[in-house]
């Protein structure tokens, strides 16, 4: 049998999984490994959500639900969005619950884009964007967001890449992998261009809660942007519920209607009992988030202070999400060789920046979803390992 369609031939299947496999093998051989390769918070999910799942299972919440999610969950999400971010969406018609932000983005692309259309996305970006575009038969065009520009998205760079086929801009702030946050001023310039060129925006805001200092701004809240923005969020990071697979998209009713149509043909609905658990997280999980984010800030501050003192590593302080993305070019190694060296000598696993698009080149991503003690140990070991070079 052929292994895939022609579109997927350029898909870098397995890049990250090779790193994970290598790290696991070293660990099996007894090496101390500090896993900083994956964006998976190390906290347990909220207890109230877990208890609610047990109850849901006992009361037979095991069947298909509405494609857009159970009503109590849609309501709880919309209330939380209003409470914490001032986003106002109607729980009947302007939200669809999905199996994570990843599914939401894939479904949106499949719904809104024709084959051959183009999406522009600031690079470096979450690695799945490019692969999802390939699956949907659309072209993802990378626009640089660079450390040398203090991670600001230059609107002229976007403009240069717009063609008659460009339909969409895919933004992610707070950002994975670079930890940058697009501020209101920057978003306003982007919004003007979006309106002028009649584009749609997917605003991936699944790190909205992980912001250290300034306030999170959703581009959807800027003037005349609500109707051209699909906001994607998730419980994965905010509630440490990565394996529950609950995300959602907020947007205008006419778009959500078609998104639901497409979604129906993929997973039909999200896991019923997980949805009942998530209701509790949204209704009663604010302090859970606040406590977790406080701890992530402590870890991120330590990581930044410590790594930025290492000769040769260039860093800009991450403002959001939970990743450090140092520039490693002065070491004269490829990103993959640098990661292998760190793994073998320091036992610390990072991800080559090239996994996150062309403009991730020269960088390495380190996720600080480990305990504070592990972060301290990792920093000491990285320092010692790089000191030997
Ligand atoms: N978007 C970004 C920017 C991410 O970093 C991730 C996961 O790491 C996702 C989407 C996918 O999240 P989910 O687990 O909700 O599918």
TrEMBL record:
Enzyme category, top tier: transferase
Molecular function terms, GO-annotated: transaminase activity
Family: Belongs to the class-I pyridoxal-phosphate-dependent aminotransferase family.
Keywords from the UniProt entry: Aminotransferase, Pyridoxal phosphate, Transferase
Named cofactor requirement(s): pyridoxal 5'-phosphate
EC number(s) reported in the record: 2.6.1.-
Classification via PANTHER family: ASPARTATE AMINOTRANSFERASE
InterPro entries: Aminotransferase_I/II_large, AspAT/PAT-like, NHTrfase_class1_PyrdxlP-BS, PyrdxlP-dep_Trfase, PyrdxlP-dep_Trfase_major, PyrdxlP-dep_Trfase_small
CDD domains linked to this entry: AAT_like
A Pfam family assignment: Aminotran_1_2
Protein name according to UniProt: Aminotransferase
Stretches assigned to the Aminotransferase class I/classII large domain: 33-382
Keyword Transferase: yes
